[in-house]
Amino acid sequence: MKMNDYVSRKLKILSFFSILMVIFIHMYYAEGDSYIILNKIECIVGQRLCTIAVPLFFLMSGYLFFLKMPNGVYSIKDKLKKRVRTLLIPYIIANTLSFIFYLVLNFIALKIPYIAAVVNFRILDVISAGIWPIIKLVFLDPPIAYQLWFIRDLMVVMVFSPAIWLLLRYILSKWGRFVGVILLVALLCYSGNGYIQALLWFTLGGYFAMHPSFSPDRKYSLWIGCSCLLIMMLLTLAPYDVFWLTFLIPVFGIPAIWILFDYMALDRLYNYSYIKDMCSYTFFIYLVHEPLLNIFKKLPLLFSRSELTLLISYFIIPLVFVFIFCQVGSLFKKFIPRLYSIYTGGR
Fold first, then answer.
1. Which of 109, 192, 230, 303 might form a disulfide with 247, Cβ 3.0–4.6 angstroms?
2. What span, in angstroms and rounded, lies between the C-alpha atoms of 265 and 42?
């Protein structure tokens, strides 16, 4: 299957809004644990509603990976070679730069104790422990740029892509819709289980790429989308404290977003040049938002730690951060295009 312009625009817009949701997830203020209103908003927005973002990224990654495979399973070799450039190299570079960043910041904090207020990562002791502890700190579980756990999990899942393709290719030919239902049921049962979650969403994305005819009938799709949206909102706003139920939000939220996107004609956002430009820096923002976001969000704490300050910062800083680093990415792309291309994997 080939991707048409509409689906391409849809994926780019959804990716941009997903990275914004990821930023809201990482905007959690530990300093505001004693504030009831702030904690409630952080729970509803960052810990529930925005949990849609990461599974959606896995879904889109699986869709793009299994799209356009002219040589069948033999195309996977070329796909994996390309992911070395688009995923592995950015993973290594971004973690290395984060390590250097924290190292410099730690040395500065030793000289200027006031700076220590915005430093939450102490790594100087690790350096003296040897090479292996440094490698574990920078690249393994979790990587020092901890948002890159997504790339780590994605690369692990891709190792099993030949088996996934064979499974989908030969089972889909006989039980196409049945396989889709099985995958959805599996997500209901295992959506919060680490690598299993990544594998299931990635496989579901591959399923849609290889079986595009699996979609609800037009006359039922709006009803399905609205029903999923209602269930997602009930799960998001419900006064429960059962951790695993949170992972059901993407199971209903992603179909709601995917279906209602078409009815709301959100692809028209791509007609605005500034939206189109910002969508091109989604991966750059993903790579740099930690540790830089952690510094940004703590700057207001140097002046005030009131609940009002934290609430304003919680909603304003993600928008300001995205705007600023879209501009930064634009400058890097303009003046050091080769380095920018290597850093972002050619995106």
1. 192
2. 29
Structure confidence by residue, pLDDT tens digits, 208-237: 888 766 565 566 788 889 999 999 999 998
Asked whether the predicted pLDDT for residue 170 surpasses 80, the reply is no
Q: Which residues contact 277 (CB under 8 A, 6 or more apart)?
A: 326, 330
| Residues 6 or more apart whose Cβ sits within 8 Å of residue 130 | none
Return the biggest CA–CA distance within the chain: 68
Secondary structure (DSSP) of 95-115: HHHHHHHHHHHHHHHHH-GGG
How far apart are the C-alpha atoms of 132 and 137, rounded to whole Å? Answer: 9
pTM of the model: 0.89
Give the dihedral sign, CA 98/104/107/113.
Answer: negative
Angle at 172 between CA 169 and CA 175, to 5 degrees: 155
Supply the pLDDT for residue 213.
62
pLDDT, mean of residues 105-133: 68
User: Between helices 248-263 and 218-237, what is the axis angle to 10°?
Assistant: 140
Contact 15, 282 (CB under 8 A): yes
Closest to 298 in 3D by CA, of 321, 329, 275, 327: 321
CB within 8 A of 176, min separation 6: which ones? Answer: 211, 213, 214
Average pLDDT over residues 332-336: 95
Q: In 285-307, which positions are buried (b, 16+ CB within 10 angstroms) versus exposed (e)?
A: bbbbbbbbbbebbbebbeeeeeb
